[in-house]
Amino acid sequence: MKRFSSIVITGASSGIGEALALDYAAPGVALALTGRDAQRLEAVAQACRAKGAAVVAGAIDVVDRDALATWLRAFDDAHPVDLILANAGISIDKDNSSLDDFSVIRKTLDVNVGGVLNTVEPLLSRMIARKGGQVAIVSSLASFIGLPYSASYNASKAAVRVWGESIRYVLKKDGIGVSVICPGFVVSRLTAHAPFPMPFLMSSSRASAIIRKGLAANRARIAFPIGTKAAVWLGSVLPGGLTARLLGAA
Length: 250
Prior knowledge:
It is a single chain. About 50% of the residues lie in helices and about 15% in strands. It has about 250 residues and is an alpha/beta fold. A seven-stranded parallel beta sheet has the order 3-2-1-4-5-6-7, with helices on both faces. Helix 1 packs across helix 6 (about 205-215), helix 3 packs parallel to helix 4 and helix 4 (about 100-130) packs parallel to helix 5 (about 150-170). The radius of gyration is 18 Å and the shape is globular.
């Protein structure tokens, strides 16, 4: 079972990212935390320091490729990173109204896909040189099927899921594990005020426990909860026309 001592977490100011930061925080652990809300991020950082962790916090936009790369490499110089948690994401087209404004779709892809690449790219060559580490990419169970809401979010999560699952094969020879995390509905700012049902809604602390166990075991895919996972699996294996009728799209 892997243990991690130098961890990067994007989207650490709330939800799953915040829960993971607090749960990983301990003496001997260094955390690099980013988030959109500077005030909330600093509160998370202070809570992690109170648990004995060394923390560097930066309110850096994951879309800002150059600034993020400079910040990540500086942290890696001081604390060679052994776990990257590319968690930052947005969901701003919950009712698919973005079809009237494609800038919303492009912004979602910039953050949810570009942000993952911007987080992994600056550190990957260093991990390869060290022959070790773990890359964790937060996707979603929504990545497995076309749902009648949040189209650009679902598409962005499908892209990073498949990318992560594919590079796992390539990086294995370098001693680097890759895990794709596919949560269902977890209490966070993303799920707040969602205009659709959220069955099996899970607390961020429970999600963190599942994720940390899966990362320690270098699991290829960490998908939960079982109820939502089963429903999505069924929808993905049924004929497309039947799935569309069940979802009201036929």
